[in-house]
Write a sequence for this structure.
């Protein structure tokens, strides 16, 4: 795939291009599409002439290679086969990773829902059960093509890159360097206190926006950040408030999680 910057690549992702990409796999669009929230990729709900809308995810160039994306797709299908309410991509001629001109994309069934109520103990317990089931499957084998969630990749490397590429104003470089150095040291101490931490396949970005709650329970979407890492990565983003509130929320999550 040609080396394109994000700005260059997405500048070419016009409405006509989006519809042409979807129709390249044999679907007939009705001309309607709506941009959905996404930080890394471009995601759209696209109306079809015959049937329910689909969700198209156009992958940011140069972030993941094909093998890593296919591994994400395989993981979500593995979870769906275990009757966990995730939304795996649709396959066309046995292919889930689709290509149209410069863009790689995937199409998903459209699923609606609302955010979970994080102050509702029942919702947290149900979330805990589903995360526990995801992790039970995730622990069965490792990722081969997706990087781990670790201190080097999420703290040391990014902070060095910001400094080396002059993103930090000169008058803040010393303070930023000192602060990140202290934080990385504390993270290292936390890992030491935890001892040997098991790493498993994770959702990786399991915040409330990736949970679509319905009267029948949740749909869990967007495994684009799936990595191997410690289980707590898929739990902590459901916690908020003061320490007492977070401890109560964690207890509710674990009530469901520890069943698996």
């Amino acid at each position: 795939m040609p080396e394109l910057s994000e700005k260059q690549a997405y500048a070419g992702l016009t409405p006509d291009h989006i519809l042409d990409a979807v129709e390249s796999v044999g679907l007939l669009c009705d001309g309607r599409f709506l941009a959905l929230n996404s930080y890394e990729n471009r995601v759209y709900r696209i109306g079809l002439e015959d049937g329910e809308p689909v969700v198209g995810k156009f992958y940011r160039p140069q972030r993941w290679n094909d093998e890593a994306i296919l591994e994400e797709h395989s993981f979500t299908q593995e979870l769906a086969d275990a009757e966990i309410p995730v939304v795996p991509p649709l396959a066309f001629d046995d292919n889930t990773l689709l290509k149209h001109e410069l863009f790689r994309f995937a199409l998903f069934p459209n699923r609606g829902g609302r955010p979970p109520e994080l102050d509702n103990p029942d919702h947290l317990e149900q979330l805990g059960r589903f995360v526990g089931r995801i992790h039970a499957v995730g622990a069965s084998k490792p990722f081969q093509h997706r990087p781990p969630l670790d201190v080097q990749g999420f703290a040391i490397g990014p902070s060095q890159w910001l400094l080396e590429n002059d993103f930090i104003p000169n008058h803040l470089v010393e303070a930023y360097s000192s602060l990140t150095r202290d934080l990385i040291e504390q993270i290292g101490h936390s890992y030491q206190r935890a001892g040997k931490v098991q790493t498993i396949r994770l959702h990786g970005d399991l915040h409330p926006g990736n949970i679509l709650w319905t009267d029948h329970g949740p749909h869990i979407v967007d495994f684009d950040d799936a990595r191997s890492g410690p289980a707590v990565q898929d739990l902590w983003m459901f916690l908020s408030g003061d320490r007492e509130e977070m401890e109560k929320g964690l207890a509710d999550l674990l009530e469901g999680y520890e069943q698996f």
Q: What stands out?
A: The mean pLDDT is 94.
